[in-house]
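Course exercise 7: structure representation. Students receive a sequence record and must write out the corresponding structure in token form. The form below is the worked example handed out in class, using 26S proteasome non-ATPase regulatory subunit 5 (763 residues). Read each field label carefully; the graders check that inputs and outputs are placed in the correct fields and that the protein name is recorded exactly as given.

STUDENT ID: A-19
EXERCISE PROTEIN: 26S proteasome non-ATPase regulatory subunit 5
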Amino acid sequence: MNKSLRLSNNKKREDRTVQQRYSFDPLTLESKNVSTAMLLMNDSDSMVIAQALAALDKFASKAPENSALLISLDILPPLLPLIEHSEIYVRRFATKLLAELSTQDETKKLLMAVPSKIPYLSEVLTKELDVPLQEFSSEILSELTKMHAACADILGTEVIDVLFQRIKSQDPDVQHNSAKVMLNLLKDPEATPVFLKSPAFEFPSIIRLLQSEYPLIQMVAIDVLDMLTKQRENKEILEAFRLAKGLEELMDILEMYDWKDLHPGILTILKNVADNPSMIQHMSTSNFIRRLLQYLGDINDASLMETTLDVLGKMATTESGRKMLMDNSITETLLKYMRDENAAITRAACIAVANMMLNQQALEIFSKDNPLREIMGIIKNEAFAWETRHGAMLALCSMIQRDKSICELFLNLHQQEALLHILKQPPGKVPMEVLVTILHCFAVCAVADDTRMKALETDFIEPTLHHLESPDAQLCVAACFCLGAYSCEAHVRERFLSGKGPARLMECLKSPYMPVRQAAASLLQLMGLDAKVADAFITTGILDWMMGQKKTKNACPTWETAIETLFKSCLPAKFFYLGHIDIQDNTGEVFYVMKRLNKPFMILDELLAIRASPRSIMLVANFGDADQKFKRTDVEQVPESQQTQVRQGQEKKVTLELSSSIIPLGFIRVGMHFERAMLFKVLADQVGIPCALVRGEYGRTWIEVAVPEIEPIEVNHSLHVEDLPKRLLKPNCVVDLMDEPGKLLKIGSFEAARYCALPSALI
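STUDENT ANSWER:
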């Protein structure tokens, strides 16, 4: 089939961009008399002007350098008025020459600088009935729309609505140029929505261009359809494409092997829509899969086979697509091509296999065939490109995640060593997506206890920790996910601490990418369940920094949960930052509190390890196996008038005696609100009395308890406070530990307010 562009009178000819339509023999033009021809453009005789324009156009079409020469000689100022000349043949040649020159940036800039020209060219294409003028104006617009600013100007005209009429023109050049304008508008993010909302928008006229006898028109039509079918968020567009029988038209072209040059573009369009539910439903009611598999078997081109497998792999990303492929016995086909000698075909088949594993029936077939050795062979083959090896890794990850027996076989054969070898490669040597998939492979092995312990025989924790510092956000997220999967193991948490995990995680939390912060907060939450790790996080300064990130708290769902985990593992930190310990919080065997809020918060073990003393008094209650002096809880009765003086002298004496500001609570014999409230809380937790420790606005501390009044729910049956979960209890009374020890003061009452506030605050 002859696909050269033709004239409107059906005579075959070359494209107008190669051979000119008009020539004037009486006037010849060489570079030495270009200026003369330009002078003739100002002649009063329209025929002379037309001859000069034709000669200049012929000169410009010979080489881009000639166009640049004419522009450098300032041809544009006298040329632009001629496109609106009264004589139509002058307008034709002037517009044709301008179209030739419009490939140069200088021409585009000048047209943009003259506000009236783009609307005029748009009007010519819209309203002019002369086909040559339509052709040349559309060619100029196709060049201008390569610029974002020009697209914005064109949006204010009627061109978009008319484009769908012009691609139906009998003139192939008008069709081609109009389709190029469409394509350029679709490439502009701001112009695309306006284009798609045009009342004239329709698919059939675009799809008909695929049957043109001119390859240039077909190629542009494919590009336009490609851009349209990429509008995945616009379901109406894909539905319109389906209703226009676009799939059927594409499959018809695939079965025309003499149009093989169009097949790559056709397959790309099919890949765009292959995971759309509406499209898949349409495919299931036709012979689409059968025809596509027949094409795959018949075509003898590796590149087209690869792209066809990509289409099948894309379909396999949806449940309905996998079911439809299984109905067409796809597994045998995929296994066949996965073992192909061509690396690109192998890659595409591996990805399709990975997606098909999500179908239980397909998984059983693949597991029975057990392609593990072939997959690992591809991964280990350094002769293959990383893209192919990565496809095999995706298949491996999907298989070991879905089939425990394959996962056990994978680990028993020590195949994970090959993944670890790749994971340890120097930065930049391995693509990031490969490293991400390897980390996912290790993560899925952690699901079961036996496979988790088997996987940990391979030392992948250290390189995983190293990848927390990667500048690639996706790799950081994968590293956090992998470490979190193994965080339940104590020795993994030890490796996390010894491998500077808290400091590395701190940098992830500070990442500008929200997915990295989210993943890091999730890992912190898992690791922070261990009190030792939580203390390390606090010592690193993570908690103090996180508390100040108010904007991140709102944007990151796990941020607040991670902070709560650290508070749960370290109640002294919770009391320090929040000023209260709830009823459900048990202080345990060791609890310590700083009397004054001197930031930053310091971990007791850290202070003891470095033999440092905090600047303010820190009271410690220890019920463990430490020195007996920590167990002393006796309180000397001192007259109220002397309590403050005695207490201050007592603190100085004990501080000097211990040579430290860290004072065991048992050494305090005279206490005020703070000391008595702390003593009450730690003792109450030891005997199981639920109470909350609260530090008020003015620094005074008190105890709150829940004393519910519960009516019997059945005859002779009552619900007692000890029957209620602590999380359901709500404090409603303050315990008087000073004036009338043991007296309950109703929260909200004047007595409770007076007890909880400093005297000066009541004035």
